[in-house]
Structures
1.
Amino acid sequence: FQIIFFYLSTFFLNRSLLKIFDKNLSNTICIVILINPIIFQWHMSFYTESIFLSFLILLMCFLFRSKSWVNFLFIGLYLGIMYSQRTIALLYPIVIFSYIFFLNHNVRKKLFKISSLLIGMSLILILIGIYNYNRSGIFYFTPIQSKSDIQTYLEADVLKLSKKISYEDARNELINFNKSIINTYGYDLQKESDKIKYLNKVQKNSFNTLIANKTITLQIIIKNYLHAMLLNPVQVFYETKYQNWIDYKKSDEHKFWLIVRIIITPIFFIMTGLGMIFSIKKVEFKYNVFLFLSIIYFTSISCWLPNTRYFVPSVLFMSIYFSIFLHEIS
C-alpha cells in the first residue's frame, strides 16, 4: 500500500509542479524522487518514513495550489494529521508561515491565512488532547514516550564522557535513577497519569544533565548530526539481513558501504548546493524559502538522533534542488 500511495503522491506532485516549472524539469524532479535509493528503500520497510514522505509530497501539492483561507484551514488540519503520524511535524507550520510571508498579498490576507492554518492544526491537537484527557485525566497531545528520548539516545553518552565511565555503567546509573523516582514517589507505571509524571521527572533530569555538560553535549550532538547526514542507501536492507546492528557494523559489508557513503554524500550535497544556486534565477523566491527552510527544519529537529533515517525528509526536498542541477547541465 505505502509504495502505491507514494507513487500516486508523486504523480499529483508532478501535476502541481507544472504550474511552477516547465514539463522537463517537473518530470526530472519526480523521476529523481521516485528512484532516489535513499528514499526508495523505505517503501520496503515497516517504518513510518514512506507514509510520512507521501504526506510531505501531498502537502507540497496542497500548498503550491492554495489561494484562499479555506485552503490554509485545510492545510492546518492536514498538518495536524501529519503530526499524529510523526511528531516532528509539530513546529513545521513555522516553515509554512515563512512561505505565506512572501506571498504577493497584503498583510491582512497573510495574517488571515496564518490564522486559518493555526486554527486547523489546533483543532486536531485539541481533539488529541481531549481524547488523552478522557483516558488518563491529563490533557496532553505529545506522545509520552518522547519524554524519554533524550535519556535513551543522548544522556548516557554525555554521562559516559563527563564521568569517564563505560557506556554500560552510564546506562546502569540511569536505570537506577529511574527506579529511585518510582520508589520515592510510589508511581504505578500501569496508570497513565503516574507514567506521565514519572516521565516528566526523567525528562527534567535529562535536561539538567545536558545543561550541566554543555560542551560535551554539543560535541555529541555535532557527531550525531554528521552521522545522521551521511547518506545510507542500504540501511533497510542490512537492518533486515542482520538481526543485531552491532554485528553489521563489525562486518566487511559495513566497511565497504561506509566508503561508498563517504563518497556519495559530498557529491549529493555539492550537486544540491549548485542546484540551489541555479534555482535563484529559475524558482520564485517563495518556493525557494519553503524548500530551503524545509531542509533546515527536518535536519535540525530530528538529526540529533544518530540514525540516517531521520535525514530522509530533508533528502526529499534536497532532491528537488538536485534535479534542478541535473536539468541545468543536461
2.
Amino acid sequence: DYLPQLSLHYLDSSNVVTGGADSASIQWSVTVKQPLYNGGRRLRQRRLAEADIELQGRSIKDKKREIRESIDTAYYRVLMLKRKIGVQRDTLAIADQALKIARAQRALGNIRDIDLLESELQRSSLEISLRSSEADLEESEFSLKLLLGLRNSEALELLDDFDAEYEGLELPGDRGFFASLVLEGSLELRQRQGELRKKLAALVEARQWYLPNIAFEGSLSLSGERYPLQSASLNGKLVFEIPVPTSPVSFSVSSGASTDKQKAKGSSIGLDPLGELASLVESETAAKEYAVMREQIDDMAASLEFQVRKDLAAYVRARDSLEMRRKDLALQRKK
C-alpha cells in the first residue's frame, strides 16, 4: 500500500474518411500513482499485522512446548506402568503361594470353603488388574512411539529415573506471582487481546473519518501520427479523499504541460450522496463490539486467576497426600 502503482497504456487508432483525408493516432502513456497519506489507517493495519505474526510465532512455540510436555507425560507413564506391573507380578506370585497354602489348609480342615473361595477371588482380581495394566502399557508405548516418530515394531528402552524421596516443589506464598505468569503466557488471552486491538482500530477509524486520503498521480504520454512520435505531455494530479459518513468527498488539483507549448490546470470536486448508508451505524457498532470484547477479556483474566488459585490449592493437597502415603507405606513396612 505504500509502494507506487505503475500502469502502461498503448493506443493505436485510425480514422478513414470517405472523400476526405484519413488520419491516424498513436499514443504511449505511463501513469504512476503514489499514496502519500491515509490518515494513519495503513499504519494501524501494519501494526496489527505485525502483532498477528508475533502471535503466530508464539503459537508455534507453545505448540512445540505442548509436544514436549506430551512426550514427557507419555514417557513417565510408561515408566510408571512398568513399575506398577513389576509390583503386581510380585503380588500375584505372593497370592499364588497364599492360594496353595489355603488349599492345603482346606484339605486339612483348618479353614472353611468360604475362606478358600476368598483367596481364589483375591488371586483372580490381582490377575485381572495385571492384565489391565499390561494392556495400558502396550497402548502407552504405542502412543510414545507415535510422538517420537518411531515404528511400533521398533524396540523402546527407557531409563528409570524415579526419585523416591521427591517431595514436590516449595512454592512461594504469593499467588499473584503465578497469576501474572499465567496472564502473560496465555496464548488464548493474547489472541483475544489481538482481536481487541482490531476492534479498537475499527472504532478509531470510524470516529476519525475526517482524516483524508492523499495521493499523487503523474503521467507521461507520447503521441503522434507515426513513428517517431513528435508530441509529449506531462501531467500531475493531487487527489484528496475524505470518507465523510454517508457522503464521501473527493477533491483533486491537476496541472500539465506539453511540447507544443500548451499548459493546462484544473480542479474537481466529487460528492457521493448516500454512498454508504451502513457508515451511519459503523461507529456505534464498533464501540459496542469493543466494549463486549473488553468485557470478555476481563472475564477470561478473572477465570484464569481463579484457575491459578484452584490449581495451587490442588497442588498443595497432592503434595500433602504424597507425604501421608509415604508415611503410611513406612508403617506398613514396619508391620
3.
Amino acid sequence: RLDSDDSGSGAAAPVSEAADLKANRLLCGQAKAADDIIRACSDVLAVGDLLLSDTLAVTNSNRGWGFYLKGDYDKAIADFNESIALRQDDTFAFSGRGYARFAKGESAQAIADFDQALRLKSDRVDLLNYRGSAALRLGRLQEAVDNITATVAAGKATAPDYLNRGVALLELGRKDEAALDLSRAAELASQDLAKDPTQNTYSLMYRAMAKAYGNDPDGAIDDATRYLAANPKAAEAFHARGLAEAAKQDYAAALADYSQAISLGRKSFILRQRGDVYLASGQPDLAAADYMAMLRQFPSNPLAASGLEKAKLAVVQKFGTNNPPASEQTPS
C-alpha cells in the first residue's frame, strides 16, 4: 500500500535525497517482491525525523508486509506493532499482523486482529477465510463454517476454503454437506495443479486432504505419497495418508502415519482421529487417552466426547476394569 502524501516531511532535504526518498516510498508501497519491499521501506525509515507520523505508520506497515511475505513473522509483527502504535485506524496494519500471527499458529490473537481490521473496514471479505481457518484451529466449528460461507457467497472461495469448511462440517456431524465441499475442494485443487503445477505445488496437498476426508482414499494416498517424496517432513501429508489408510482399514499403517504427523507437530483433529483407529483396532485404552487429550484441546468436540464414551465401555469389556494395565505404547 502506498502512502499518497509525497510532501509529508518535517524538515527540508537536499533535492537529490528528496528524489531518492520519493522513489523509495513509491517502491515501498508498490513493490511485489519481499526483498524489494523491505529494502525500499528500510531506506525510507532511515530518514527518521524527516517523516510525518502517518508516513512512518504506513511505511512500517508496508515493511511488515514484506517481512510477512519473506516468512519472517516476528519482524513482521514488530513492524505492524510500530504502525499500530502510530495509527490505530489502519485496517491493513491489523490484518497484516493477523496474517503473521496466523502463520505462527497464534489463532486467537489472529482472530482479534482480523476482527479489528473488519471493524475498521467491514467489507473486507478477504479476511473471513483466514478468520474461519483460525476458528477451525481453535475448534470453533460453527464460527468457521459461518466465516467461510461468507467467503463462498462473495465468490472468493478457493480450494482450501472448501476443504476447511468441509472439515468443520464433518466435525459437526454434517456429512452430506461436507461431502459436497470436499468434492469441490478436490476439483479446484486439480484445476490449480493443471494450470501451474510449479507455482501451485501445495494444491497437491489440498487435494490429498480433500480426497482423504472424502471418498477417494487411494487417490489421497497417491497424492500424499507424491508430496512426501519432495517434502519428507510434511506433517500434513502424513496426516492425509493416515486418514486414507484408516478409511481402507489399514490400521497399522494409519497409526504409523498419524503418529509421525503428531511427532512433526501436527495438531488439528488428529488425536481424535488416531483415537478412532486405536478403538477400531482393539486398543481402547490408547483410544481413551487420545480422546481425552483431544478434549483438553477442544472441550466441546462432539466426536471426541462420543468416542471417549465408546472407548470407556470397550476398556471394561476388554480388561474387566476401568483401570487397564499400563500399555507399552504411550500416545503422543
4.
Amino acid sequence: QGSLEKRRQVREQAQPLVSAALAGFEDLFGTAHPKFLHAMHTMGLLAAEAESHEEAANCFRTAYDGRMAHVDVGPDKHDTLRSAVAYGKALNELKRHADALAFIEEVEARAGRVLGGESPMTLIAAHVCALALAGVGRRPDACGLLRRVHGSRVMVLGERHQETLTTASDLGELLGKAQSTRLEARALLRVAAAAMAQTLGATHRLAELAQSRLEHVEDAIARGAGDEALGDDTGAEAGGEVVAVLLHIFVDHAERRRGVARAALPELAATAWEAGADALEALVPCEAAQHAEGTALLDVMLNEMRFERRGEPLNLNGLAHAHVRLERPVELRKK
C-alpha cells in the first residue's frame, strides 16, 4: 500500500508539470514538434498509470501519428516504436484485442527488422501481440509467442528481471486455462510469484497478480476442472456457442438514393437479435428450472433492445423496396 501511495503522489505531482509543458510546447513549436510529441507520450504514461486507459490510448496514438509523420523521426525511430507499443498496450487494456492485434503485428515486424528480434523493444511488441492473440481466442498462438518472448528475456535480461517475470506470469495464466498444461502453469507461476515477492515486494501489484493466478491454477488442479473459455474473460463462459447470422438488405436499384437502406437498419438489427435469440434458446438446458431461467434472460435481452418485429417489407414514403430476409438463418459452431 505504501508503494502504491507513493506512486500516486508522484503521478499527481507530475501531472500538472507535464500538462504545462505540453501547453508550452504547443504554443512555442506547434503540435508536430518532437518536444510536444514527447510530452504527449508522457501524458499517456501518466494516464496509463492512473488506469485511465482511454485517455492513455488517445495520447499514445497522437504521439505515434505525429512521430510517424515527422521528417526527422519517422516510422523506424525508437520513439515512434515506443509510442506504437504503448498504444497497443492501451488497446489491450481497453479489451479492444482485435484492434490491438491488427495494429501491433506490423509494429512487431518493423521493430524486429530495425532493432533485431532479441531487442527489448521487439520483445515488448511481441508480448503485447501475444496478449492480443489471447484476447481474440487464439490461445495456442499466444502461448507459443509468449514462450519465445520468455526464453529471449531469460537470455537477454536474466531470470529475475521484472520483464522476464511478467512474461512468466502472463504465460502461466494462459497455460493454466487448459487442463493439459496446468501443471506447467503451476510450476511457472510458483517461480514467478516467489521471485516477484522477493524482488518487488509481496504487496507489489505484479507480485499479488502472480500469486492470485497461482492460487487460481492450484484450485483448478485440485477440482480437476476442464479447459476454461478462450478469449476475454468477460466474454462467453466455457463451452459456449457462437451464433453467426448473415442478413441481407435488398433495395431496388432505382430507389438507392432515397435512404431506404439506412431506414431498414433497425429492422435488420431486430431480425438479427431475434434470430440469435431463437438459436440461443435452443441451447438452453432442457431441465425446467434452467430452461425457465434461460428463456427469461433472453426475453430481457430482447426487451432491453426495444426491437419490434415486422413481417412485411419496410415501407418508406409509400415505397416498398427494402426487404430484410435471412440469407442463412442460423449457423452454430463450437468454440
